Structure formats: structure tokens, C-alpha cells
Amino acid sequence: MKKIKYIILALLLGMLVSCEKIFMEPNPKTDNIAIFEEYWKLVNEKFAMFDDPGKNIDRNALYSTTRAMVDNSIPEDSLFNVLSKITVGLKDGHSFLSGYVSLYGFEAYISHFFYDNVPLNLDQKIIDQVYLNNNVQTQGAKFKYTLLNNNTIGYIQYRDFNEEVTTEIMNTILSEFQNTNGIILDVRGNMGGAPSYAALMASHFTDSRIYIGYETFKTGPGIGDFSRSEIYLNPTDGTKYLKPLIVLTNIECFSATTALIFHLNPLSNVTFIGAKTGGGSGSIADGFLANGWQWQLSTSEFIDWEGRHLDNGFDPDISVSLDILDVSQDEIIERAILELQ
Fold first, then answer.
1. SS3 assignment, position 199
2. What is the span of the domain harbouring residue 77?
3. Does residue 132 share a domain with residue 102?
4. Which of 78, 130, 238, 289 is the residue whose CA sits 20 to 30 A from 178?
5. In a domain, 12, yes or no
6. Which positions ≥6 away from 178 have C-beta within 8 Å?
7. Does 291 score more than 80 pLDDT?
8. What pLDDT is recorded for position 140?
9. Distance from C-alpha of 217 to C-alpha of 127, rounded to nearest angstrom
């Protein structure tokens, strides 16, 4: 009897092993052509901005020109550089490919690729020495604020949306500036972080609900597979500031800072001064190719209340450049002061 039980158990185990073999997926291919096609499929099905008129991407040409460079005999670095050409061709700072040292830069992180040789229009030493040398206050590691122009103008410096923005922080800062003529919000050099912090910050500069635009999300593999989500700026329950606000921008205003810009732009009390921003408006998806290289792609795009695509950057209302030879002043701050006098 025991022998029969053992035979039955052995048969059941054999069946389980056979079923597991049936349902196990084969190892994905990792030859050059397979990796190329895997990456292109991801780009083709997930990237949300092929139709952005500012990018002017020819999807078919991008595929055909790069596919012609790939066969299974080229070395690994050449394959990576071909895939990097696809990434660069997307003209999107949120999209990157990493895992190899590329001719496009270490790990082919593309965010700064389009900003080479563009003036930063920011010299922190001038700001520290000329504008923040007296009575500067701080909130956390990134917020610095003070009064300028004989205490008639508030100045807030915020360089990183990875630093938490809370209602309490904004209440504390804005309560100091209630008797000013206006505020200068300097977000130059802010490469982004959490968009929710941008929305919270913007909520302190309006007293009514404002439509700011919509976000389109890639929801499927087809060219037309998109959904749409309307976005509104809602006023805070905390301290509000409804007098003139001037936002200082440069090429390194990116990602969550773009979110701040599109939240504030519809407000009549807001003016932007400085230089064109870097853009970066999309939500992202990421993962790994079969050979271990990491990818990231923008899977959504923001369209503002006037129908503008902001992923390629935002032009300020007043363009001002920094004179790098004059270390006695920041021309962008000075123009903002002039506007608020």
C-alpha cells in the first residue's frame, strides 16, 4: 500500500514539474537586434509626445535610420549609442537610457543634452553677497528669504523641489511679506522634484479655483491610445498672497518647476522674468531591457490653458540675461525690483 502511495506521489510531482515547464516563459533574447526592437517597442508604445509640434519628431524616420545601424555583429557600445540616438531624438529631458558609458555622456542621461552652451543666467555668489547678506532667514535646507528695496519687496529663493514644501512653511514666509509691494520668487536652477510641492506652493497665490490646463496620458500601445485629465489650481486654506508675484526663470527650471510655472501662469498677478526654461512636463514610466540597461520615458504631456505644449520650455514675459562680467548685481533680480517699485 505504501508503495502505491509513493508511486502516486511521484506521478503528481512529475505532473507539477511538467506543468511548470509548460507555463515557464523562455528567456528573452539579448542579441543586438532583439534589444533594439525591445527598446523601440517601448518607445513607440509608451512615449506620449510624438505629436508635440515643438518637438517635430518623425517617428518613422527615427526608427528606420537607427534600425539600419544595427546588426548582431556590432559591439555593445555601438548598440548603446544607437539606442541613445533614439533617446536623444525624443527631445525630452525626462527620457533616458542608462547602463553603459556612451558618447552622449556617462550613462547617456539626456536631461542636459539640449542645454549645452546655453547661459545659466544664475550666479549664486552674487545673490549671496549682494542680496542675502543681511537678515536672511531660512526654512529647511532650500528655502531662503529676505526683504529687499528698503523692506518693500519680499525675496524667496527655492532651488530644489525635492525639499518639502508645506503649508506651514509657506504660511511662515508669506506672513513676513504681507506689507510688501510684491514678492520675487527665484526658482532659477531648480531642476525639479515633487510636482505636488509645486501645486501646494502655487495654491498660496490665488483666492479662487483656476483652470490651468490638462494632462494627456498614454494608456495603450496604439497611436491614439490617450486619456485626458483636467487640472485646476485650488486656493490654500493657509496664508495667501494676492499682490504682484514675479517668478525668476532660467534654462535649469525643469520638471516640477515647470509644474509650478503652469500652475501660476494663468494668474493675473504673476509675471515671469529671466530666460526660457528647460521644460519637462511629463509623468514617467521606467524599467529594464532584457540585457539590464535601464530606460525611462515620458508617458504623459501637459497642455496649458491656452493650448501650449510646455515640455520644450516656457518663455518668460520679460527676457533678461545676466551680465557675467558685472559681479555687483543680478540684472534679473534688479529688473524684478524695478517692476515692483
1. helix
2. 32-114
3. no
4. 130
5. no
6. 241
7. yes
8. 85
9. 40
